[in-house]
Amino acid sequence: MSKNHTVKEYKLVVVGGGGVGKSALTIQFIQSHFVDEYDPTIEDSYRKQVAIDDEVALLDILDTAGQEEYSAMREQYMRTGEGFLLVYSVTERESFNELSTFYQQILRVKDTDSVPILLVGNKSDLAQERAVSFEEGEKLAKQFNCEFLETSAKQGINVDQAFHDLVRTIRAKNESIDGVASSADATTQNRQNSVAGAQAVDTTTTSQPANQKAQTTQGTSGAARKQQSSQGAPAKESGGCCVIA
User: Fold this and answer.
1) 16, 58, 67, 149: which could form a disulfide with 9 (CB 3.0–4.6 Å)?
2) Nearest to 21 by CA among 143, 99, 120
3) Residue 49 — φ and ψ, nearest 5°?
4) Model's pTM, two decimal places?
């Protein structure tokens, strides 16, 4: 890797209710290790460098508290986040229902309707305890206008893909913004070129009558000189004879 090459950093925030497996997902991704016991998180930050689609990325992942009493603190994290994993447990209907609250909070804090988000239904390995169907997850993802995955932090199913897909979503948004900016710059440049061209044409058109006027003046002066020359010439005497009576 070149010394001048800068690795792009992505700030990801993991959001969801308490006990849905946010920390288990994050630690499985960072350390390839499953944490079985539940220890409520207030704030944990992790960093990992990975290659996604042959492009190196440094992921700064913030695992947030799901409890309502930490809502104000969570908003602070949301302001700096570039992308969000919205996590619920497929075994808990309530964790699924409260995602709309988290989603609206993100849109309000970011003050935009276009935020990179990935909806994650965790604990897919607990099939016998399932309370939320896969189809319901897909439907909610369509409402949020985002991608959807079911994961198992315990078995490592779709864990890497969840974080990688979120980075891909962020990249796609950034490329879209860059494309719009480039198009706007090109439009501005074309407009400036058109104005400059119009001014050049106007200058040429304005100077043309002056040339014609000069030519007309010269023509008039020539005619005047010719007339003066004609008037100044001596008149010819009339010829004739006299009659003698």
Assistant:
1) 58
2) 120
3) -100, 125
4) 0.71
Whether the predicted pLDDT of 17 surpasses 60: yes
Give the pairing of strands 83-89 and 147-150. unpaired
pLDDT digits (tens, 9 = 90+) for 136-157: 999 999 999 999 999 999 999 9
Strand order in the sheet with 8-16: 43-52, 55-64, 8-16, 83-89, 117-122, 147-150
How many Å apart are CA 121 and CA 158, to the nearest integer?
10
pLDDT tens figures, 167-178: 999 999 999 887
Q: Are 134 and 116 in contact, with CB atoms under 8 Å apart?
A: no
Residue 69 has what DSSP assignment?
G
Q: Cα separation of 17 and 123, whole Å?
A: 14
Give the CATH class of 8-177.
Answer: alpha beta
| Collapsed DSSP state (helix, strand, coil) of residue 20 | coil
Of 67-76, 103-112, 130-139, least confident by mean pLDDT is 67-76
Coil, helix or strand at residue 16 = strand
In DSSP terms, 89 is beta-bridged to 122
- The long-range contacts involving 48-54, CB below 8 angstroms and separated by at least 24 positions, are 49/7, 50/164, 52/164, 52/167, 52/168, 53/168
Enter the tokens of residue 29: 């991704």
Question: Around Cβ 245, how many Cβ atoms within 10 Å?
Answer: 2
